[in-house]
Amino acid sequence: MIKIKRKLIETIAEASRNVYPEEFIGLLRKNKKGEVAELLLIPLSTFGEDFSEIRSDMLPIGLGHCGSVHSHPDPDARPSDEDLVFFQKGEVNLIIGYPYNAKTVRAYGNDGKRMGIELVD
Fold first, then answer.
1. 48-58, pLDDT tens digit by residue?
2. Is residue 94 in some structural domain?
3. Is residue 100 part of a domain?
4. Which residue of 2, 34, 36, 59 has the smallest Cβ count within 10 Å?
5. pLDDT band, residue 69 (cuts 50/70/90)
6. Residue at 82 is within a domain
7. For position 121, what pLDDT does the model report?
């Protein structure tokens, strides 16, 4: 079970709606309580129609992220084969499906297994 700040999910949902029908992507960071609490936007990330990409050369040194988030422009929030490869770089990875709200978010570990989500204020 992973704890995620409710406000973060609202921010991710809004960002996903803003780039729809393209996929949104960002990185995640935990707070001192171990809750996923911050969205990190990486310069020159690509938001595409059926993919999204973060340029690793644009990551700041010592970023300290715990995983990733990206959107799917349909209700299916299951990871693709490409997602599973990308997930290996993070502890927790979120996919938010259309119509982008707390009910359409799924969390996955770096092994691709689904994790439970607890929203916290």
1. 888 888 888 88
2. yes
3. yes
4. 34
5. very high
6. yes
7. 94
When the pLDDT of each residue in the chain is averaged and rounded to a whole number, the result is: 93
Residue 92 domain flag: yes
d(CA 116, CA 43): 30
Structure tokens at 44: 């020159």
Tokens 């340029």 found at: 55
Q: 4-29 pLDDT, tens per residue?
A: 999 999 999 999 999 999 999 999 99
Q: What is the CATH number of the domain that holds 74?
A: 3.40.140.10
DSSP per-residue letters across the chain: -EEEEHHHHHHHHHHHHHHTTSPPEEEEEE-TTS-EEEEEPPTT-EE-SS-EE--GGGSPTT----EEEEEESSS-----HHHHHHHTT-SEEEEEETT-SGGGEEEEETTS-EE-EEEE-
Q: Which token pair is 28? A: 């995640």
As for how many domains the chain has, the answer is 1
For 92, other C-beta atoms within 10 Å of its C-beta total 21
